[in-house]
Amino acid sequence: MAFSSCITVNNVTKNFGKHNVLNDISLGIQNAEIFGLLGPSGAGKTTLVKIIAGIDTATTGNVSVLGTEMPNLEIMKRIGYMAQSDALYEELTAKENLEFFGRIYGLKRTQRRQRIAEVMDIVGLTEDLNKKVNKYSGGMKRRLSLAAALLHRPELLILDEPTVGIDPVLRKSIWQELETLREQGTTILVTTHVMDEADKCQRLAMLRDGKLIAVGTPSELKESSSSTTLEEAFLTYGGAE
Ligand SMILES: Nc1ncnc2c1ncn2[C@@H]1O[C@H](COP(=O)(O)OP(=O)(O)OP(=O)(O)O)[C@@H](O)[C@H]1O
After folding, report:
1. Which of 6, 117, 127, 240 could be a cystine partner for 187, CB 3.0 to 4.6 Å?
2. How far apart are the CA of 43 and the centre of ligand 1, in A?
3. In whole angstroms, what is the distance from residue 145 CA to residue 50 CA?
4. Which residues have any ligand 1 atom within 6 Å of their CB?
5. Where is the signal peptide (predicted)?
6. Does some domain include residue 232?
7. Tens-place pLDDT, residues 19-34
8. Host domain of residue 97
9. pTM of the shown model
10. pLDDT digits (tens, 9 = 90+) for 69-118
């Protein structure tokens, strides 16, 4: 059976001890859409994307990805996950890092070589392929993490604040690449604080204090909060009481 829903989140609640971080979240994300998760710091965005990626579990409720309840190892291989903090081997070069991830994803030698060249080109790091990661700047590490997430052509890309520390020119080209991937059928879930990025998403969800307070297209969110910009909508939903 064909299903158009890539991610289904059903009544997810997450507690860390007595601290309730996600409160009864239900959400559907369609195939081949760029879906943005917005919300103030501490709202629960990272916690939610980790549960969707299968690297954390909900206290109650459940999540399905590509028709399978998470966490599931086979499905995790079809996801590209870029965490908020870079998971890179500092003592290795960029190429060695990507070789390592490529092996984990089961890419053959020639495939690895080809994909490493392609993803490094996408993130603008071709010239720095043989440089050790400990010589990389913060922004370069972000770009390398994105390259690693793209390596195995995942059907679902989960990006936790992917463009922090990346200059506007490169940010624009990365977003163009995300749009191309979407046109090719990749589903992309992205957390962001950057409003012009949020505007590029097909749909957005706003989280506050672990609760889902609004879901819709950028224009719907502006309309429903009587705002002319997303920034205003974000402030209305995210901050003002
Ligand atoms: N492992 C953990 N143990 C205890 N509390 C945690 C843990 N992980 C997250 N939290 C708490 O959960 C809340 C939500 O954190 P989370 O990182 O999901 O927020 P966020 O919306 O991604 O914030 P930011 O935009 O700053 O990244 C915070 O109060 C945080 O302190």
Report:
1. 6
2. 7
3. 16
4. 16, 19, 21, 39, 41-47, 84
5. none
6. yes
7. 999 999 999 999 999 9
8. 34-43+74-238
9. 0.92
10. 999 999 999 999 999 888 899 999 999 999 999 999 999 999 999 999 99
